Amino acid sequence: MSGTRRDHDHWSDVASEWIEWARAPSHDAFWAYRPALSEFVGKGTGDALEVGCGEGRVSRLLKERGYRVTATDTVEVFVAAAREVEFGRPL
């Protein structure tokens, strides 16, 4: 089994736990550096691509800043979670 396949299988196995963990405010470093990241990327009107989006929190930040975001991940559960937050329902 390749390293890529092992990574995919691992993240598929722990996706629901990761989603819960990542969405808990102040649970990890993202919440501490989020304001600085927001300031760094600045206001945007262009396109942004996030590869390996997980549950989509960086994609949401980019969208808040005005970017048109395309996000992708090899784990469909993550893509579905990102879409659910974006559109308010599963797609």
How would you sum up this structure, described in words?
The chain has helices at 3-22, 29-41, 57-64, 76-87; strands spanning 47-51, 68-72. The protein contains 4 helices and 2 strands. It is mainly α and 91 residues long. The radius of gyration is 14 Å and the shape is globular. Strands 1-2 form a two-stranded parallel sheet. The model has no long low-confidence stretch (mean pLDDT 89). The chain starts with a helix and ends with a helix.
List the helices and strands and how they pair.
Layout: H1 3-22, H2 29-41, E1 47-51, H3 57-64, E2 68-72, H4 76-87
Parallel strand pairs: 1-2
Helix pairs in contact: 1-4
Radius of gyration, rounded? 14 Å
Number of helices: 4
In total, how many beta strands? 2
Mean pLDDT: 89
Portion of residues in beta strands equals 5-15%
End-to-end distance = 31 Å
The main sheet comes to: 2 strands, parallel
**Secondary-structure element series:** HHEHEH
Shape: globular
Structure at a glance:
This protein has helices at 3-22, 29-41, 57-64, 76-87, and strands spanning 47-51, 68-72.
Quickly list its features.
91 residues; mainly alpha; two-stranded parallel sheet; 4 helices
